[in-house]
Amino acid sequence: MGAVVALALLLGGGGFAAWKLDWFSGNGEAVSFGKNPPPPPAAEKSEPGAPATPAKPSGDPDVLMPTGPKSDFKQTTRLDDGTIIAKTRLAGAKSGFEGDVWVWAPKEYDDPTYAKSGFPVLIALPGGNGFPANYWSDRSLGLQKAISEGVQAGTSLPFIVIMPVLNPDAKYYYDGSDIPGQAKMGTWMAEDVPDFAKANFRTYKSRDGWAFMGSSSGAFVGMKTVLQYPDRFKAVIASGGEIVPDSPLWKGHQAEMDANNPEKLAKKLIDANGPEVYINFQIGTKESGKERMTKFQQQYGKGPVKITIRDIQNGEHNGWHYVRGMKEGSLEWVSKVLKGPKPEAG
User: Fold this and answer.
1) For 61-113, what is each residue's pLDDT tens digit?
2) Long-range CB contacts for residues 23-28, cutoff 8 Å, separation at least 24
3) FRET pair for 186, CA 20 to 30 Å: which of 72, 129, 169, 219?
4) How confident is the model over 151-173, as pLDDT tens digits?
5) Which of 234, 329, 310 is nearest to 275 (CA)?
6) Cα separation, 113 vs 344, whole angstroms
């Protein structure tokens, strides 16, 4: 941070003030998403002093209005377009695990035109230990900006981005799974985090509005969860990821590890003939691992398991290059797979 501040000072006092305003203004303050509910129809207008009439969903029966209870969000970053990345603490009711979650909603979410519309959810998972932070909440990677620019260009849906911690500590990898005797990170990821999104945002009941993205170990968890729960999630952008579980905590629990192995999950889905899931691998041409993706595609990219591989030219194993791959086509790919919000008629 010191180097960044020094650079800002070199730009002059006015430059530093603008930089500080853009990046830090309001950090730590309470944030509310969905601030513009539509007024009730004339026949349903409330008497003065009466509680506000909650918005009703649009004509799409798949739209799910926030179920509550609302979480307490605090701003961590303000983006150039005025949108906010915020953080809250989630106590997982089903996993028993408590951890931080960052969220971002696009400008369209607060547009009254979409006040009765559901929005697709992209659960973004980091690589590495994924604790105590989720690096996709760092504006420098440009994930949220890429989505906003894609919306303007017509190449991306306006995703709500949910960014949970990946692991309960920085000591081990937990493979986003319920490893016996450990924190139930599989339940946290597949149930508590989506329940949290449904509690706070206008989403969709069906899997058509739900996807993962992740890099490295986060790519593995996202792919594994989509294959494990194809009735809940439809797609994943898996960047530079691993293919099989490799946590040392699986020792002595072979059957449970197999139940979280994407190779075995994909075969099970193929044998059951569905439902269809969509996997988009991203891999930089300057990193290793493409052979694993290609082998997985050749063996399991059949029937209901739809697999594509995107090469990122001169790409390395990092979030900046994976976001570039998303801008170059992966965001458009996942946007064609999922459904997006529609403005109200009239």
Assistant:
1) 999 999 999 999 999 999 999 999 999 999 999 999 999 999 999 999 999 99
2) 23/77, 23/78, 23/139, 24/78, 25/78, 26/75, 26/78, 26/84, 27/75, 27/76, 27/77, 27/78, 28/74, 28/75
3) 72
4) 999 999 999 999 999 999 999 99
5) 234
6) 6
